[in-house]
């Protein structure tokens, strides 16, 4: 038995050597077949040359050297190309090192490392179509491209996973920069961008926004500058999540700055400290708007919120607009839709020469705030608006509250919109109540002061003239009080009965004489349809009685 062991050992060695030779031959056959298919898939003007190769018979991995791809005067060189998991129909992994590029137009480029995984090899007779390409992974490190006609592009790192023609499963890029030529000196920079589950659908070669989907997008340190057109854009960070139908999207922007020329009006600059949006089915809303359909309802338990802070605008370096904070919220709970909006720190500063009337009144700007609140059942019913409040610092505050019965139900989400039908439904709604208050904080006094100065008369005298004018306000359909030809008043008849406008005139006159708060109330004994109100202009007495109008100065 002992003398047979060397024979068995020799047989084993020969068997392993034979298997290795067969494995290497099979690996090389697959590699050759893949290379030939790639060659056949290239356009006729392109040529692929390979200087040398080494194939590992155990793993099937191959290393190609001196790989050159030429296209007329264009040339791409890969000193070292590592291949793995190669079949006749698929390139499992290809890693190119120290890639250099020369374009037919004289451009140059280099890439320290390029990795491609999961590249399908076109079937025989089919060409390689980059627009429909799919990849399991793509990695790029330290890429630089210089084109004399387009400019220079650099990229520190790029990684893609599951790339397909209409999107990508995940991606990240950092250190992107673009610099144009002297003739077109545009500049762009991007510190970092991250993508997850992003779909960028193209329909007939055009981007289809209604089909855009995104699980997550993060952008940091974005800058764009076009000196020729005077446009600059800067963004510190932007984050978007859940742009998918049926999900509540969240959006956050920080440090947005925009500058651009306004034709004939100089340079406009705008900056935004922060913007947050949450709770909105953004994808479903865009789908509905583009399709002319009813947008999705707010999700139960998830209010739709918008928060904006630090919005400023300048015109040729001069501040013209500012908004300290804006808050908006909408919700649908227990069948009732509620909405609110509040603006704080609102300032409008007209440029010099565009607001003489404002400066004449002693104001340098319009500063104040805005508040709106309301509710309505989704299935229709009473709409409550309480309040709408507009304030102008050191001038006046306007407040409005209203109740409307018979507000139409909101169409179901996704149904076709009919604006004409909606307008008819609102015309049939009924006004149940309305109150309007105007509180003076000095505006009326400033107007009187300016008018008195222009007319060269005492302010008190002008104020009384205005009060007398209010007492003589004409009433549609009848002559004003005291006018010749007016119908004589019956003896002993109450003044309000003889002139239903008298209390209104007296309240306005009292407000002019001593500015405070002027309150106008509409309380009809029975709700009145909006379509009927316009027909009451010819009979003021009937309108005042049916609408229950009263005016009080406090």
Automatic annotation (TrEMBL):
Entry keyword Signal? yes
Span list, region Disordered: 476-496
What is this protein called in UniProt? AsmA-like C-terminal domain-containing protein
Q: Where is the signal peptide?
A: 1-25
Residue ranges annotated as compositionally biased, kind Low complexity, are: 483-496
Q: Which UniProt keywords apply?
A: Signal
């Amino acid at each position: 038995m002992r003398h047979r062991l060397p024979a068995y050992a020799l047989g084993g060695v020969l068997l392993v050597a034979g298997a290795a030779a067969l494995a290497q031959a099979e690996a090389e056959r697959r590699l050759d077949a893949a290379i030939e298919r790639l060659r056949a898939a290239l356009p006729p003007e392109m040529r692929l040359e390979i200087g040398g190769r080494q194939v590992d018979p155990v793993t099937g991995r191959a290393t190609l050297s001196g790989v050159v791809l030429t296209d007329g005067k264009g040339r791409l060189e890969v000193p070292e190309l590592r291949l793995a998991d190669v079949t006749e129909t698929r390139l499992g992994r290809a890693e190119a090192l120290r890639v250099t590029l020369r374009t037919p137009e004289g451009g140059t480029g280099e890439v320290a490392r390029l990795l491609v995984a999961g590249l399908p090899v076109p079937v025989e007779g089919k060409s390689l179509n980059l627009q429909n390409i799919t990849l399991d992974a793509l990695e790029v490190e330290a890429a630089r491209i210089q084109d004399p006609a387009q400019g220079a592009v650099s990229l520190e790192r790029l990684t893609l996973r599951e790339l397909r023609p209409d999107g990508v499963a995940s991606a990240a890029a950092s250190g992107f920069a673009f610099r144009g030529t002297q003739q077109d000196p545009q500049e762009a920079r991007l510190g970092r961008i991250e993508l997850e589950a992003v779909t960028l659908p193209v329909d007939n070669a055009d981007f289809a926004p209604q089909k855009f989907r995104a699980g997550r997008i993060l952008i940091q340190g974005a800058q764009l500058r076009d000196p020729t057109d005077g446009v600059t854009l800067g963004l510190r960070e932007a984050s978007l999540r859940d742009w998918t139908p049926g999900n509540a999207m969240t959006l956050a922007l920080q440090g947005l700055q925009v500058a651009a020329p306004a034709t004939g009006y100089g340079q406009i600059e705008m900056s935004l400290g922060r913007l947050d949006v949450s709770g909105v089915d953004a994808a479903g809303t865009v789908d509905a708007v583009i399709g002319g359909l009813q947008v999705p309802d707010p999700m139960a338990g998830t209010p739709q919120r918008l928060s904006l802070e630090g919005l400023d605008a300048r015109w040729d370096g001069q501040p013209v607009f500012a908004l300290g904070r804006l808050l908006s919220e909408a919700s649908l709970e227990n069948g009732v839709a509620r909405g609110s909006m509040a603006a704080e720190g609102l300032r409008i500063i007209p440029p010099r020469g565009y607001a003489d009337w404002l400066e004449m009144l002693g104001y340098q700007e319009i500063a104040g705030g805005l508040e709106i609140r309301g509710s309505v059942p989704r299935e229709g019913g009473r709409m409550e608006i309480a309040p709408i409040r507009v304030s102008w610092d050191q001038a006046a505050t306007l407040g409005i509250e209203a109740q409307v019965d018979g507000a139409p139900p909101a169409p179901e989400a996704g149904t076709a919109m009919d604006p004409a039908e909606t307008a008819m439904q609102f015309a049939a709604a009924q006004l149940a109540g309305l109150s309007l208050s105007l509180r003076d904080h000095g505006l009326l006094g400033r107007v009187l002061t300016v008018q008195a100065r222009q007319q060269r008369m005492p302010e008190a005298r002008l104020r009384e003239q205005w009060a007398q004018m209010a007492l003589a306000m004409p009433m549609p359909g009848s002559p004003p009080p005291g006018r010749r030809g007016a119908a004589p008043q019956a003896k002993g008849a109450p003044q309000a009965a003889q002139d239903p406008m008298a209390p209104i005139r007296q309240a306005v006159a009292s407000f002019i004489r001593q500015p405070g708060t002027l309150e106008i109330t509409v309380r009809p004994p029975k709700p009145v349809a909006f379509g009927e109100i316009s027909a009451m202009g010819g009979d003021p007495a009937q309108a005042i009685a049916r609408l229950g109008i009263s005016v009080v100065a406090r």
